Model the fold of this input.
Amino acid sequence: INTYKERKNVDKYASVVSYEDFVENDFNLNIPRYVDTFEPEPVISIGQNVKELAELDKEEQRLFSELSLSVNALVATQSLQDAQELDKLKAYLNAKAKRKQVQAQQELL
Done:
């Protein structure tokens, strides 16, 4: 409100524009025409992203191993029906791990 009341020019926020400027711009009230809000995109470090992806892959493998161990432990203590359901889960997890390996190999090519 103070910017408006005091008719201030504030970089990337507000601009005091004369009537002549409006006329020159065909009375266009589009804010970006008068206030530059452009911010450059941050530089992306490809090396850093690759490193983070590798760390995430390691973490995913660690969690997958923990989950597999937990499922195996549960299979030993459950009823036959529960064991069959856990076997389905193990099969799903193994299939997912194989798909992940194939995907990683394809990405290397």
